[in-house]
Design goal:
It is built from 6 helices and 33 strands. 7% of the residues lie in helices and 38% in strands. The N and C termini lie far apart (46 Å). The protein has 3 domains: 150 residues, Cupredoxins -  blue copper proteins (Immunoglobulin-like), CATH 2.60.40.420; 139 residues, Immunoglobulin-like, CATH 2.60.40.420; 151 residues, Immunoglobulin-like, CATH 2.60.40. It is mostly beta strands and 485 residues long. Strands 22, 23, 25, 27, 28, 29 and 31 form a 7-stranded mixed beta sheet that branches. Strands 12-11-14-19-16-17 form a 6-stranded mixed beta sheet, with no helix packed on it. Strands 13-21-20-15-18 form a 5-stranded mixed beta sheet, with no helix packed on it.
Length: 485
Amino acid sequence: MFDTFKPTLQRRSFLASSAAFAAGLAFPFPKRLSAKTASITEISLNPAPGHAQLVPLPYGKTPVWCFNGKVPGPEIRIRQGDRARITVKNGLAEATTVHWHGLRVPNAMDGVPDLTQRPIEPGETFVYEFDAPDAGTFWYHPHQGSTEQVGRGLYGPLIVEERDPIQVDRDVTWVLDDWRLTKSAEISEDFNHLGDMSHSGRIGNTVTINGRVPQSFGVRKGERVRLRLINAANARIFGLDFTDHDPVVIALDGQPVEPHTPDSGRVVLGPAMRADVILDMTGKAGSRVPVIDRFYRGRGYLMIDFAYADTPLRDLPPEWSKTLPSNPLPEPDIANAQRHEVIFNGGMMGGMVMGDMGGSMGSGDGTESMRSMMHAGKIWFVNGVAATGHIMDPLLTLERGRSHVIAMTNATAWHHPIHLHGHSFRVISRNGRPTLRREWQDTVLMAPREKVEIALVADNPGDWMFHCHILEHQAAGMMGVIRVT
């Protein structure tokens, strides 16, 4: 076990000492990272070791890995339909890449080492260039050694602005993360721990918003905020309860959805997932309203307070539209779609769950014991195969331009956020029941024993990663390749 940092998750007294950090919770809006020439935005990203004041004084800065000296890395903002040209110079002592999570980029720009590009070695430079067809909330992170590189702070937000955005008083990005810190506020070195990899992943003991333990976020009564939430954690699932506020979800994983209040009242985000939420600030002037993470039963904790100014902005919420314009996604023809089956299994208690669901564990030949497979790093399986790297025979081959339905079964005892590169898909059913909104997503959170159907048009050619975004599960085998040809 690691020498644990004094936990922040249930101690309001610790959070209260972080007032100096509250001003950093919102990224500036709108701000370009560099000058634009015509419709091309030029951006430089430099992954390298650095330091960040994750937790308040008297603790010192934590050694991290970061982009451009910041955790999170700089917020990239481009307009829908524009082109980004991003120069990445690797200042790490090891190879890296950058994956543009959720963006429908050309395969050669997807940032998967060896599969779509040669890794960027120390001191080398690679230029990513792509157009942004979809407006929405996305993010970037390495796909090389991601359990450690993301776990040490290498990630940042990428916002594609609508050509005709909805009206709000403020557009704010919160990048959520958790960290496993020691008592000296350093990152614990126990990456790829067998217990993490075979259970729920690397859950930390310190939660940050935009790279710091927060106390409060200043608001005004009557204000309308568009809150862009990004879960950059290796493994933590967030279930945000806004208490006296009614969050209205207007986009999931960057894609517009019918504005709605979540059924549970909580905004649930698995690792890599995003949600755009409209919050009308209806609290009393001068009051404080908590935001509480309640995803894990019996382990709720105060994340942050909304701190109301003494002077209201307006008495009542504005009557502006909350509906985002659609993105140009091809609509799948479900009635004539080709169907595919995918089963995820493995992990602790995996054999028991598979037995209950009528299947079996392992790689298909039944000769390896669970213990020997775990010690070999084969802990999780997709259709009976545990990935050992990014280069694999295709799990599925999808005919380009055709509609496809992928029926997925989570035959494990754990949650899995399943991500498909290069495409967005409609979530059309859960456990045989049609979904109410058929939401577009690129990462879908599957509960234990749950069956989920997704539908898409395979219109982006190439070999695409398809994996669990609990990064320890991905590293331990829950990853495959889907080929579009």
